[in-house]
Each structure stands twice: as C-alpha cells, then as structure tokens.
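Thread: quick sanity check before group meeting

JM: Hey all, I'm pulling together slides for Thursday and realized we never actually wrote out the predicted structure for the chain we discussed last week. Dropping the sequence here so it's in one place. If anyone has concerns about the input, flag it before I start.
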Amino acid sequence: MKVVFLGVGEACDETLPNTSLWVAAKVDGVKISMLFDCGFTVPSVYWQMTSDAEELDVIWISHFHGDHFFGLPALLLRMYEMGRKKPLTIVGQADVEKIVQLAMELAYPNFTNKLTYPLEFIPVDTGQVIEVGGLQWKFAENGHTQRSLAVRVNDCRNSVFYSGDGPPTNSTQALAEGCDLVIHEAFRLRRPTPGHGTIHQCIDLARRASVPYLALVHLQRDERKERSQEILRLINDVEDIHILLPEPGDELELGV
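JM (edit): ok, ran it. Output follows.
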C-alpha cells in the first residue's frame, strides 16, 4: 500500500495545501486508487501528480467542512473535460450524495447531468464494515465540531487509518488498533483547541493502539512555523514509534 501526502495543511494555511491523501493498493493484482478528502486547494495538487482522468477509483470524505470536500466540483469538472468514462465511487457519512450534489449545483449549476461518467455514492456510519474495490473499510466517530468519521482501510496485508478532523476518542483508538500507519490531525502541540487534536494526544493514541508509524497532519499554520523546533525535538525523542511530519508530495510505501 502506498500513501502520497498531497496536502498536509489546515483550512487557512497560505503555504500548505489542505490535508489530502492519495492511497494506492493492490488486491489480487488489481490496483485501486483512493483519495482521502478533497479540500478546495487539493485538485491542482492532484493534477500535478497525474494526467490520467481514469486513475482514481474512490474518494473518501471524512466530513463536510470546506477544506475537506469543497475541491470535489473542480476535480469532477476536470475529469469530465478529460473525457473520463469509468464510474467514480464517493464514500462518506449520511447525506454524502445530497451534499456533494448541492456543492456541484452551487459551483456549476445544471452540470452534474452532463458528466460523462457515473457517480456512485456509498453512505456509511460507525460500526459498519464494507468492501469497496476489494478492500475492507471500517469507521469510527472522532471529536470534531462537526460530525467527522475516521476511516481504516485494509488490503489483506497492510492497514491505514486516517482521522479526518478531531481529537482521538475511545472509538477511534479501537479502530486504529494494530494499524500499520495512523495519519492523524494534530492541530497544536499540546494546547487543546475545541474540535481538534494535539500532537501529544496523537502520540498517546499511537502508543495505546500499538502503531509503528504515525504521520501528523493538519497542524495549525502558526504553530507549525513558530514551534517547529520544539515539535521536531518531541518527535525525535520518541523512540517506540516512527513519527512523520510530512510535507506535500512525500510518499510512504507500506509492506516493502
């Protein structure tokens, strides 16, 4: 399983694209390509990485804040312009179809019916286990200000957990248990912010869940700049977990 960090920033970061992950896996020799969240700054970064309109199979939307799904209209429009034909699956919590269709209508009125490829929506909730593209998907609710779901995806060999926004909960810790990689929102180093996690909370979750790799994303823009040395010292002092502070474009391949 391969993870590309398209963006690692929060909603108002002027230098880092919104947090978004491009995950590729193989099941019985067949590749599946997935995008985890698609904020308003993500499409341009995605198209710098590929020129193939058919590349993407599934999009996961953790919740409906703009920096996590407002990029969908531009992404879907570009796929149409490039002549995509293959169906595209969008997975998210209840009302995902209604909300995505509304966003499309606001961005490009009357355009959805012109798409040259089918959109297939799969609404999910906590406690469900589904199969998409031959992979197992599980979900848990975190503690964000808007309802947000964490997701765990397994490809029989490796598993990746992505938090969406929000601090860890007992449910998300259970979901992350034994994962190969946890990718978690860590808005600040240690000071609590309503609806967001801290680096210390993320490290604690990774330890409790026996996770070997932890990637910290969605850091508050000033915190990342002004406290970078303190953050790096903390990360380097942790010996039992491999902690990453990824930059846009960084890649991590599991199971190599």
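AS: nice. The radius of gyration is 17 Å. The chain has a mean pLDDT of 96.
JM: adding both to the slides.
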